[in-house]
Design a protein that fits this description.
The chain is of the alpha+beta class. It has one domain. The chain is about 50% helix and about 20% strand. The protein is built from 5 helices and 6 strands, in the order E-H-H-E-E-H-E-E-E-H-H. It has helices spanning about 5-30, 35-45, 85-95, 145-180, 180-200, and strands spanning about 1-5, 55-70, 75-80, 95-105, 110-120, 125-130. The chain has a 6-stranded antiparallel sheet with strand order 1-6-5-4-2-3. Helix 1 (about 5-30) packs parallel to helix 4 (about 145-180) and helix 3 crosses helix 5. It is globular and about 55 Å long. The termini are far apart. The model has no long low-confidence stretch (mean pLDDT about 80).
Length: about 210
């Protein structure tokens, strides 16, 4: 997978900026809403993947940063492999940590992988990586190089649009749950059971 150039990332960031304004406003109103969303996303993608099936697959990828619920605690970042399944990540969950940042991967019939890093402060996708399912690539022997470059850029922008559309759906589902009675009656008990089941011991909940 090729990482976007700085120019491409700037264009994509401007394109999706308006879609992320609501995320930023909510994060300012409630500092922990971004961490709660990312921690919930980790929980549902691992324990209830069928509940987030909306015509696309989603998973926690190869970067996971955790922060304590208390603002003055030690932050930890895990990189490479499958950090969400590591013993260290389990221990952090049990000690009351929440997700600070995470690389989230998504796919559908067109995209084999579209992944991006999300940070709890604004949930804006950064460091976007894109890999489509194998298709016939444009050749510079048949098309002018400038047109090939333009087509590739358009593909990347469409991939980010796909990622943000899926992110919108996931966040809306989370936010509806967060404001409902089901949050305390169903989600939190299931989350605590998931944390305990991962660590095989009782620890403090990181969602509230």
């Amino acid at each position: 997978m090729r990482k976007m150039s700085n120019m491409q990332e700037n264009m994509v960031t401007e394109l999706v900026r308006t879609r992320l304004e609501s995320f930023q406003q909510l994060s300012q109103a409630k500092p922990y809403i971004g961490s709660e969303f990312l921690t919930w996303l980790w929980f549902v993608t691992e324990s209830r993947p069928q509940e987030v099936a909306r015509g696309f697959d989603v998973w926690i990828d190869d970067r996971l940063g955790l922060r304590p619920y208390a603002a003055d605690g030690h932050e930890t970042t895990f990189k490479g492999g499958a950090p969400a399944g590591s013993t260290a990540a389990q221990a952090s969950l049990l000690s009351g940590h929440m997700v600070r940042e995470v690389r989230v991967g998504m796919s559908n019939e067109r995209y084999e992988v579209v992944s991006a890093v999300l940070h709890h402060k604004d949930l804006a996708p950064t460091s976007v990586l894109v890999r489509e399912h194998e298709t016939a690539e444009l050749s510079t022997d048949q098309v002018e190089p400038a047109l090939v470059h333009e087509a590739e850029l358009l593909q990347k922008i469409e991939a980010v649009e796909f990622f943000c559309t899926c992110l919108d759906l996931l966040y809306q589902e989370f936010f509806n749950l967060r404001l409902s009675e089901a949050w305390h009656l169903e989600v939190l008990p299931a989350f605590r059971a998931w944390v305990i089941g991962r660590g095989k011991s009782r620890g403090p909940a990181t969602l509230h």
